[in-house]
Structures are given as structure tokens and as C-alpha cells.
Specification:
The chain is about 75% helix and about 0% strand. The chain has about 130 residues and is mostly helical. The radius of gyration is 20 Å and the shape is elongated.
């Protein structure tokens, strides 16, 4: 996790906004470890996943042909990859929401800082 500097905030509300954004920034960096950047590539992955669920489609058929493997191999690979990513992202999302709740409940900026510093905002299971 990135090192956090203790910032001076004018009000508790300012601190909350700042630390809530830090949680989102940390989680976005973690998500990007699993995802290929680029809107177009994300769209292709989503199309391939939807095609895999249907059992056919031009993207996964093109991939099977390009790789010289059976279509079912591509289908199985795409679905397994998506499920693995989804499991990790769901775990991270739960941690993100919990950390933000704790920040909202914190009584001071120092406590907010401590919450983020001790949060395990990663894909590892606690």
C-alpha cells in the first residue's frame, strides 16, 4: 500500500472528504493490477465474456481460430478468467466500503489516517 502523509485539514469534514478519496484512489490502483487499461480493451473483454456465456460469437471464434484451439477452450478460459477477477474485485469492494464506513465514523483526521494505514485494501483474504 502507498505511504500516507498526515495532512492538516481545516475541518473534520475536509479530512473525511480527503481520506474517502484516498480509499478510492488506493482501490483503483489495486483494480488496475487486474485490468488492462483502455476503454476499448475493456469493451472487448466484456463482449468476449458475454459471447462465452452464449457459447459463440465472432470475438471468441476469432480468438479460437487465431490460437488454433477449440472454441470450448476459449470459452472455458474466458469464463474462468472473469470469475477469478470478479472474486478478487468483490473482495476489494467489500473492503473499500467497510474502510469508507469506518472513516465516516471516525472522530478525527488522525483516526481516519490510522484506519487507512491499517486497512488491507488488497485482494488478499484477511
Amino acid at each position: 500500500m502507498a505511504k500516507l502523509a498526515i495532512n492538516k485539514h481545516k475541518t473534520r469534514a475536509d479530512a473525511e472528504v480527503s481520506y474517502l478519496q484516498k480509499v478510492d484512489d488506493i482501490c483503483e490502483a489495486m483494480r488496475m493490477k487486474l485490468m488492462t487499461p483502455g476503454t476499448g480493451q475493456s469493451m472487448v473483454y466484456e463482449i468476449k465474456y458475454q459471447e462465452a456465456l452464449l457459447g459463440s460469437g465472432p470475438y471468441i471464434e476469432a480468438e479460437a481460430e487465431a490460437l488454433g484451439v477449440p472454441l470450448q477452450t476459449v470459452i472455458d478460459t474466458v469464463i474462468a478468467a472473469r470469475r477469478s477477477v470478479d472474486q478478487k474485485l468483490c473482495l476489494l469492494e467489500g473492503k473499500r466500503i467497510k474502510t469508507k464506513r469506518l472513516i465516516r465514523e471516525a472522530s478525527s483526521a488522525a483516526e481516519m489516517h490510522s484506519i487507512i494505514a491499517s486497512a488491507n485494501l488488497s485482494f488478499d483474504i484477511d
